[in-house]
Amino acid sequence: NEKKEKSKPLINKEFAAARTILDEMELHEDSWPFLLPVDTKQFPTYKKVIKKPMDLSTIRSKLEGGSYKTKDDFSVDVRLIFDNCETFNEDESPVGRAGHNMRAYFDSQWADLNSS
Ligand SMILES: Cn1cc(C(=O)NCCN2CCCC2)ccc1=O
Q1: Global pTM?
Q2: Would you give the distance in Å from CA 94 to the centre of its chain?
């Protein structure tokens, strides 16, 4: 029987696409609340209220460390950042507004990637 050549998943292209979006988000002027884990010494209630903290540096480590099997797994963690932000912050606050802006930016980049 001829050996059935299993095609490699598009994981490399997906990885590159996710990395590019992450690069762009880190450079966005409204990314400052999301670059590092929320400081639970500065915000003592955060750990109690937010069950699954997430931030861009953690996503960077997971992406570079091969923790994401698909680009969609990556997007789940990105959206977690913004959902956590809405839970903990008023919409009309500096961090709350930054979260809405960054979510809109991500959604736009994500749509482009998924239409390409
Ligand atoms: C995501 N998130 C972030 C904050 C926050 O204040 N991050 C900025 C932390 N400083 C920025 C420069 C030095 C440290 C508060 C609540 C929240 O949900």
Answers
A1: 0.91
A2: 19
Q: Which atom of ligand 1 is nearest to the CA of 34?
A: 1
Closest CA to 84 of 110, 47, 116: 47
What separation in Å is there between the alpha carbon of 108 and the centre of ligand 1? Answer: 24
Give the integer Cα–Cα distance in Å for 65 and 91: 33
Indicate which residue's Cα is closest to atom 7 of ligand 1: 33
Ligand 1 atom closest to 32 (CA):
11
Cα–Cα distance for residue pair 103/116, rounded to 1 Å: 20
pLDDT tens digit sequence for 60-95: 999 999 999 999 999 999 999 999 999 999 999 999
Nearest CA to ligand 1 atom 9: 33
Q: Which atom of ligand 1 is nearest to the CA of 85?
A: 18
What whole-number distance in Å separates Cα of residue 56 and Cα of residue 40? 16
